[in-house]
Write a structure and sequence with these properties.
GO terms for molecular function: hydrolase activity, acting on carbon-nitrogen (but not peptide) bonds, in linear amides; zinc ion binding. It is an enzyme of class 3 (hydrolase). It catalyses: mycothiol S-conjugate + H2O = an N-acetyl-L-cysteine-S-conjugate + 1D-myo-inositol 2-amino-2-deoxy-alpha-D-glucopyranoside. The chain folds into two domains: 178 residues, Rossmann fold (3-Layer(aba) Sandwich); 34 residues. The protein is 38% helix and 13% strand. It contains nine helices and seven strands. It has a four-stranded mixed β-sheet. Strands 1-2-3 form a three-stranded parallel β-sheet, with helices on one face. Strand 4, helix 5 and strand 5 form a beta-alpha-beta unit. The longest helix is centred in the N-terminal third of the chain and has 23 residues. It is globular. 43% of the residues are buried.
């Protein structure tokens, strides 16, 4: 189960991993905390621009459904309103980041107890980047992870359920950029991609190496890309998400990376499987 702030986040942060596991027969549930209502149109060539201007929330729901189909996942809306990202850091009182967290924890506990996942993936305390909804997504995910296992919390939300493993997304990391830069510098020393890759290495040089788990996803990069492109109001075909050719990724770093934060089962590091150590019953 993966908990994300907005529709499109699931496609940029773990989509190939979700497609990998659905191909193995695992049930994967993506939860979108908000509908992305306060987002902007980020693709100037959007074909559905008229609908986006008239009903962006409705369009984003259609986009999410298409992305879901590409990944083969289940999907639930948590039902809260996008907080936006104001320059002064303020959020609307009725938005996801403005509502007291206990009101947001219970519906996620209800989903956890109903779906009964072995693994939960979410963001770290910084949200991946400092959008108020991403930070609140982290806070709500951790609160629900703990509350779902406690029979005294939200007793009307189903039988308690203990999730075996909690992970943070660490897909954007220096090891990945280093591997691609080194592979490309040997294979194509005159490639124009080396300059921006070098700039990314410099920008990320102080990033700590936090990933514990490297899931092999080389076969599912195209599914990830198709899911991303489904969110056409947010993702242009010219987006930096498609900066690195998939053939290069497959050769240099064919993984999506995660950090194991808490585990109720024994496992050995580094991992290549989010379910390592989990007892699977059928």
């Amino acid at each position: 189960m993966a908990v994300h702030a907005h529709p499109d986040d699931e496609s940029s942060k773990g989509a190939a991993t979700y497609a990998h596991y659905t191909s193995l027969g695992a049930e994967v549930l993506v939860v979108s905390c908000t509908g992305g209502e306060r987002g902007s149109i980020l693709n100037s060539a959007l074909a559905d621009s008229a609908m986006a201007e008239r009903d962006l929330p409705g369009l984003r729901r259609l986009e999410m459904r298409q992305a879901q189909q590409h990944l083969g996942v289940q999907h639930r809306w948590l039902g809260f309103e996008d907080s936006g990202m104001n320059d002064d850091g303020s959020v609307p009182a009725s938005s996801f980041a403005g509502i007291p967290i206990e009101y947001e924890t219970e519906p996620l506990v209800n989903i956890i107890r109903e779906f009964r996942p072995q693994v939960l993936v979410t963001y770290d305390e910084k949200g991946g980047y400092p959008h108020p909804d991403h930070i609140r997504c982290h806070e709500v995910s951790l609160a629900a992870y703990r509350a779902a296992a406690d029979p005294d919390r939200f007793p009307d939300s189903g039988e308690p359920w203990q999730i075996d493993k909690l992970y943070y997304d660490r897909i954007f990391n220096l090891e990945r950029v280093d591997a691609m830069y080194l592979k490309l510098s040997v294979a194509e020393p005159d490639s124009p991609l080396l300059e921006p890759l070098g700039a990314a290495r410099e920008w990320m040089k102080d990033y700590p190496k936090l990933a514990t788990t490297h899931v092999p996803v080389g076969e599912f990069l195209e599914a990830r890309d198709a899911a991303l492109l489904s969110h056409a109001s947010q993702v242009s075909p010219e987006s930096s998400f498609f900066f690195w050719p998939n053939d290069l990724v497959r050769k240099a770093w064919p993984f999506e990376d995660f950090q194991l934060i808490e585990s109720k089962v024994e496992t050995v590091m580094p991992e290549s499987d989010l379910f390592a150590g989990v007892e699977i019953t059928t």
